[in-house]
Write a sequence for this structure.
């Protein structure tokens, strides 16, 4: 079965510290990969996407992610977080070009001053 | 306004009542989706539509009905609401790999 797993439901970090949010998927077919961010009481906003090409993808707000095909992972990183990065982050996968997305369970990122 | 709009933003309804959540997009995207967001489950696909008059079930379709008579609208109806349908509902549209989401409707069934 095709599935997406975010390994941490909550990640607390201090301001200006680096952070990594982990995402693994289960599939043997080609994939498109996405990270979305949800600020409180808002919809989902695209952070970055991997469709093809370079496996290191840069997104908005200083975030980046690396596609590792052998590990079937797409971890999100930021070298120095800010209070404003406090939000819920969702990894999503499109399997074999399908338009519909399969989401992970979400990771709540909390930034402490 | 351009974009994707959901209404209402908040709704409280009673068990057994029918309720319809509205979704409107101005991009003329072919695909539209309904997801529900629940703690610990992320977003799960309820129904989706590839074009007007073409709809298909997602992961959790039971208890929901959709229609798409016009490209820009994709209403979601709960025929007889149950407490387990208390959730935040997101509509999305796409015409390529990336999906664009509405602000969500928070539905409480009492």
């Amino acid at each position: 079965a095709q599935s997406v797993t975010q390994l941490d439901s909550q990640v607390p970090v201090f301001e200006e510290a680096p952070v990594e949010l982990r995402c693994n998927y289960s599939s043997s077919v080609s994939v498109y990969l996405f990270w979305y961010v949800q600020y409180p009481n808002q919809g989902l906003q695209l952070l970055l996407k991997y469709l093809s090409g370079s496996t290191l993808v840069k997104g908005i707000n200083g975030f980046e992610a690396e596609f590792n095909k052998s590990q079937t992972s797409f971890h999100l990183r930021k070298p120095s977080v800010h209070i404003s990065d406090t939000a819920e982050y969702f990894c999503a996968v499109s399997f074999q070009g399908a338009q519909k997305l399969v989401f992970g369970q979400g990771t709540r990122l909390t930034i402490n001053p | 306004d351009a974009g994707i709009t959901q209404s209402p933003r908040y709704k409280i309804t009673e068990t057994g009542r029918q309720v319809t959540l509205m979704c409107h997009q101005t991009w003329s995207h072919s695909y539209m989706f309904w997801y529900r967001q629940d703690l610990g489950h992320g977003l799960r696909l309820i129904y989706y539509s590839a074009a007007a008059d073409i709809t298909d079930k997602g992961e959790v379709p039971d208890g929901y009905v959709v229609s798409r008579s016009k490209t820009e609208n994709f209403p979601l109806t709960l025929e007889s609401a149950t407490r387990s349908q208390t959730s935040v509902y997101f509509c999305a549209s796409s015409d390529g790999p990336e999906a664009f989401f509405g602000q969500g409707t928070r539905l409480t069934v009492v």
